[in-house]
Amino acid sequence: MRFETENDPEVLRQAALLLERENQKLAKKIIELTAELLALKGGDPEQLKLRIAELEQQIAQKNRLLFGEKSERRDGDEQDATPEPPAPPKPPQKGHGPKAQPSLPIVEVVHELDEADRVCNSCGSALEVWEGQFEESEVVDVVPRRFELKKHKRQKYRCRCGGCVETAPAPVKLFEGARYSVDFAVEVATEKYCEHSPLERQVRKMRREGLLVESQTLWDQIERLARLLAPGYEALVRHVLSQPVIGVDETRWPLLGKNEPSRWHAWSIVAPDAVAYRILEGRSTEEAKQVLRGYEGVAMCDGYAVYKSLAKGENAGIELAHCWAHVRREFIKAEKSYPEETRAVLGLIRGLYAVEAQCEAGASGDDKRRELRANASKPIVDRIRDFAETTAVVPGSSLDDAIQYMAGLWSGLTRFLKDPRIPLDNNHTERAERGVVVGRKNHYGSRSKRGTEVAAVFYSYVESAKLCGIDPKVYLRTAVMAALRGERIALPHEVAGGR
Questions:
Q1: Over the Cα atoms of the chain, what is R_g?
Q2: Which of 39, 389, 444, 489 has a C-alpha 20 to 30 A away from that of 267?
């Protein structure tokens, strides 16, 4: 073994243990030989004892230097030394070490010498197995995905009387005569709507792995899954709209195959434990009505004019709360031209977030949040209003635009002061849209109206499962199996709450 090039800690530890045992054997032998030598020379017995004790002390000291803790503490220091402050913690090791993998199964692989190599290099004798002695190391390996063509043989049974023939039950299928399993369909859906892999890309990957399949076949699988999951999707929408405070937003979602620019948009409504999507042809008031379905409660949104018009007339049950993160972005746009003015207001907005950070998230922090907002946040909001009213600006400038944007949303921006359930911004909703945005960048939207409906179903399930800390693939399979059995589909927040 070359110690100057070996960097495996476990190998070096085993080598150090072996060296320590050999060192102890040699030390014992030196003491025995020294005693024999002094006896042969006719030395005094007392001097012999002292010499041996001195030798043992020297060997023990060398062992501590080699194998002991690197410490200058001596026995008795606790009694006769003044206490010293504890040593500062060691700085964190640079770089990254091995990461613990508690979820991975452990597979032990024993490596043995070939028969031809089991010969001693010194004497030529045969090497024997040293029971229980190994040099161990760990590597993380990958098990390739493998497709199988399973042939199901349903055993038939008959009675000798000829009056009865029974057959073992068939495995659960998506539909009668389905060639692909439920797990295969769930795998395709997860790859497309969670890992954002287009069907054509999946086809190429499957071909490399030995499976010949067409993208239309893959689409048939996920379209069938969407039909099964539709009742649960509607229940998910109803759950979100039953919450007292929700987030609302929309983002572009192209519908392919048209010559004119696509105006389709993915609308999202978000609760703390669920998100639901509708992909519609536009982002007007009519589409907003279809998404919110007469919702009564607080809707956190940006300054898009459709939301203001929605809160009037027949939809007067909606109260709008507006997003401080959007206000902050407007002032950041003006920062380059007006550094002093924007520094002041950005610092005040940062103060609002500092107050929020003192409260526990969720309903358990509502009482403290209500108190802090009244005593700490309101004075900050008053200073922001004074800034907007007293700051001289050039009409039409970027700073003027930022102040006008904030002033136009003031009632919604200050609604959080009276209701501790209202968040400071709509970032929660924007984070829930990341999956849709990444998917749009990978497969460029949908090819048909039915494709938008299927996408809305799967994105709602996948992103809701993520919000609840559930593996989307595991959840989708559970939901599909419940639907195939004719049972009610448990929603992600219900599954998470029952764990």
A1: 36
A2: 489
